[in-house]
Design goal:
- There is one protein chain.
- This protein is mainly α and 331 residues long.
- It has one domain.
- Helix content is 73%, strand content 2%.
- It is built from 16 helices and two strands.
- The chain has a two-stranded antiparallel ribbon with strand order 1-2.
- The chain starts with 6 loop residues before the first helix and ends with a helix.
- 59% of the residues are buried.
Length: 331
């Protein structure tokens, strides 16, 4: 089983995770006439498949051919259920995030939602697994909060430029962010960690990713079917649209899942070295990546005034500070 043995390798995996998490939504932006509720079935299948693929490649080495299988067979039932519950919570949060992208765009939805998730996830994970410099970690969280506020103000500034601004989209982002920050503590408890000198948690990173993505996929039969019947944007949609969708839509959905799932596996593997709080925090710098895609590739702030662009620039500065502080907290 491949795991990092230096902070440099772990940091590289966490940065890769952030790039993947900030880039997967481009696959949804690239589809035409394919509702996100239908796209999401392909995406959910994709994240589960890639966790299986990486688990049976990176998770199995020539020195221990059955490491992943042994871990799954030896895992406590409670830890498996925790990972799957974390996946179900993530899935609801992510569905709301995609709806917010539909309403407000990548450059707004990602920084607001994931910035809030960073704060919630880092604090709750650190309480469970206090690893790293608490002061630096706290300073990084504060910078992330400031970045979220600045991005919200940049979005609000679009109104003065005659662009449509949806308050509902910001509410959806906030709810998504709170939920998105709550899956990490479940993974902290499911993976090995120390409590009063005792090692608890039985899932290795590859097994944890498989059960998390399985929980996400299964929960689609609750969350996604609900949103198909009661959509946040547009009219209700049925499964007929899924089967009549073009092959390109399905392929983009699977690709989006592969990209996000790769980031998840890398993040959990890096957490084996740094602890979940630090790995999660650096991975959640994904909003910078998403915002760059939104601004540069999708022109979401084209024609915006100087005020909006200034807020965006400051948002990037504070997110960079957040990443540096969290990375330094590892010592």
């Amino acid at each position: 089983m491949f795991i990092p043995h230096s902070f440099a390798v772990a940091l590289l995996m966490m940065i890769t995770s952030a790039v993947c998490w900030g880039s997967w939504a481009n696959t949804y932006k690239g589809v035409k006439n394919y509702r996100f509720e239908l796209f999401y079935w392909d995406y959910a299948i994709g994240i589960f498949l890639i966790s299986l693929i990486l688990g049976h490649t990176m998770g199995i080495t020539s020195h221990d051919a059955s490491s992943l299988v042994n871990n799954i067979h030896g895992a406590a039932t409670g830890d498996v259920l925790l990972a799957m519950l974390g996946g179900a919570i993530f899935n609801l949060a992510n569905l709301l995030l995609v709806a917010a992208i539909d309403m407000a765009g990548l450059a707004v939805a990602f920084p607001v939602s994931i910035g809030i998730a960073l704060v919630v996830g880092v604090i709750t994970s650190y309480v469970q697994q206090p690893k790293g410099n608490a002061a630096l970690l706290a300073a990084g969280v504060v910078c992330a909060v400031i970045a979220v506020i600045l991005d919200g103000k940049a979005y609000g500034s679009l109104a003065s430029a005659g662009r449509a601004v949806s308050r509902r989209s910001i509410i959806v982002c906030i709810v998504s962010g709170v939920l998105m920050g709550l899956w990490a503590p479940f993974m902290t408890r499911a993976m090995p960690h120390q409590v009063n000198g005792n090692v608890l948690g039985t899932l290795g990173p590859y097994a944890a990713a498989i059960f998390l993505t399985l929980g996400a996929l299964l929960s689609c039969f609750v969350w996604n079917i609900y949103f198909m019947k009661h959509p946040l944007v547009g009219e209700p949609v049925g499964f007929s649209g899924f089967f009549s969708a073009p092959a390109s839509g399905h392929l983009l959905g699977l690709l989006g899942g592969f990209i996000w799932g790769t980031g998840m596996v890398f993040n959990l593997v890096a957490a084996n070295f740094t602890g979940v709080a630090i790995s999660y925090a650096i991975g959640q710098s994904a909003p910078m990546v998403a915002a760059l895609w939104g601004v540069l590739a999708w022109k979401e702030f084209a024609g915006a005034g100087t005020k909006a662009k200034t807020y965006l620039f400051l948002m990037f500065v504070f997110y960079c500070l957040a990443i540096l502080l969290v990375a330094r907290s590892n010592g």
